[in-house]
Every structure is written in C-alpha cells, then in structure tokens.
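Request: Show me your protein:
***
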Amino acid sequence: MNHLILDRCGLDLAPYQRWLDRPSDRLFLFAKEGRVDRASLSGSSRVVLTEFDDLDRAPELEHRAWTLAQEQGVDTVVALSEYDLLPAARLRELLGVPGQGTASALAFRDKARMKELLDAAGVPVAGFGVVDHAADLIGFASRAGYPVVVKPRYGSGSVGVEVLTDEADLVSFLRRNPELADDRGAGLLAEEYVEHELFHVDGLLHDGRVELAWPSRMTSCLGFHHGAALRSRMLAPDEPGTAELLALTDRVVAALPAPGSAAFHLEVFGNEKRGLVANEIACRVGGARILPAVEAAFGLNLLEAHARAVAGYPVTPPRDRRPRPLIGFVMFPPVEGTVRAVPSGPPPDAVVDYRLKISPGDVLGAAHTSVDNVASVLVRGDTADELDRALDSVVSWFHGSTRIEPAAGSAAQPC
C-alpha cells in the first residue's frame, strides 16, 4: 500500500516508518521544508520525502498528490494535525480513497457548523452566532448580553479567543479587527459566556464508534494571559461526573458525521444550573500533555493509534478502559521577564515526567497560546485525592524554586 502523509509532527514525535511497518508499504511524506531530518531517512527506500515552503499556503501540494496518485497510486491519506483535517479530506475525495470526507472534517473543524449539528441533535451547547461582520457581533451582544466570547471558527490552542465584558470591550474589539468590515467576512463565532468548570474527554474513535474515552478536569485555557499554570487531572471511575461525561461524549460523536477512525479531544463546560454543556470537539489528539498522560494511564499512544487506524492497520485498544494509574499534568506558561532561578533538585516522588525548558539568564516573552510553557510535569496518583495532593505539591515545588524578574510594565505574574 502507498500512504500519503501530511506531516507537521516530525519523525521524533511521529515515527511513521515504525508505526506503519509492513515491508511492502511505501510512505510518501509531505512536510514543511526543514521540518524532517533527512539524515534520519538515509538508507530507507520506504519513505519518500517531499518538502514545501508552507503547508498552509501550498495549493501545489494537492496537485503533487494528484500526480503521485496517477503515477504510483495512493491508498490512504494520513493527517494528524487539526490544520490538515480539511486538506486531507479533500485529497481523499479527489483521489477516491477511504477515510474522513469533507462533510465530517468540516463538522469537526468549523466551530459554527459543529454547534449547529450539536444543537440540532439536542446536545446542550452555549448560545452562539456566526460573526462575519460588525453588525453580527453587535446584534449578538444585544441579544445575549455580556460577557460574550469571540473566537475564530477554525482556531485552536485558544489563539484569538477573547471575552468581551461590556460595550467598551466590544468597541475596542471592532477597532482591532478591521476584517469585520470586509465583504469576505471575518470568520468568527460569538458565544454566550457560560460560568463553568472545564472538562476534557480524550480517546479513540474506530469505525465511527467510541473505542476509548476518559474525562479529565482542567483549569481555564485562557489563564496563560496572566501567567496562570494550566493544570489537568483525570477523573476517578467512581468520581461524580465521570459517567455523565462519557455519556455526553457518545451523544456528541453520534451528532456529527462519522469520521471513521481517529483520535478525538472534546471540551465540556460544567455549569451548576445547566449541567454539562458541550463546547467543542476536535478530530485529533489533544494538545498540552494529553498525549503522554493517556499513554501513561492506558499504555496507548493515541497519535500512533490514529495514524495506524487511518492507514488501515489494526489497532488494539487497552483491555482495561479505566486509567491505571490516574494521571495529571501541570504546564507553567512563560511570563515576560528574566529567569533568575529554576529548580535545582529532583521533583516530588509522584512525578513521572518533568521537562524544564529555561535556564537562569534566559529572557522570556509572554505566552501566545494555552500550551506555551517553560516547564511541564506529569504526575500520577492511585486515587483522586492522592493525585490532587501530588499536583499541589508539584506547583508549590516549582513556584518555590523558580524566580522570574518581571519585565517593566508586564502585568502577568506566575501564579
């Protein structure tokens, strides 16, 4: 078989040649120039690398794929990044190969289409409206009231998400976004703000059904704006909300056009009055430290499972569909300033993985996405209480040993 792979991960994170290991299979790797270490491919006749200046602005990529299919044949199209879901779907339909098509990819990629389908199926969602022009946003705010959440319809990583709390915020937003006066439209989505506790559910879809899923509780993805650590931990099987979140996951997946086989990442709001409210779902592995957290809890690499499933390889889900142990993680975002001290001793005993990216003397800029970080820690616990205590100790340990001298005028502080 010939597998066309749209790659943004690199072979360190996604060793396709090891995951798709049938000797007769050939892997045609389309990647950004310089992203893949050519030396790592030396001596391999199975992997053929084609480089492009920019995967996001390379329409010739689709022509190259078409030419490849005519000359050598393409049996599957593999894409692991959210940004490649729609291009991969278009290629599958162009080349006549199986897998997620454009209707399904659009439902998982376009937040407006997603909300329309969920709402039509009776899945609880926040009030929403498409925002292409200033009038759309003004009208929505007048109907829904403040606060109003505005986000890109095709965004990810909380990039471009803003919460408008009053009319002054609205006017400021309009001034900063001239595309709201463009006839082509701004491509935004407005949502009613829901006071919430944030949950995410991560797992694997196989042949359109939920094969593996598990929920976690997470702090706000917007906390990086003021230096707050991103913290997540898996729920225990008998913990309040676990069964309800898994049931909601089934409803969300059933409401959208089936993608076939893929990893998924679902975000859910827990509201005291409204219960669970579906926020959005992505047809790919969750960001932050979700990939290693799931692997530590279930022994399954979701990225590998996604690639193998899309390529038609067998995927064996874990026998036990409950996490053993429970896993949590903390990611500490950068704040503007100069690093003066970092932890020098070993982390607490419950830590299973610790990654430090800074050294004394480093000058840091502000975080731009929810997953930007100067350090991250993976922690284990056999019970919810044990995991919470371990996470508390990690946060205290890191903040007690780290000192960043803020840049003049910086409002963000590590917290």
User: Anything to note?
Assistant: The two ends are 51 Å apart (CA to CA).
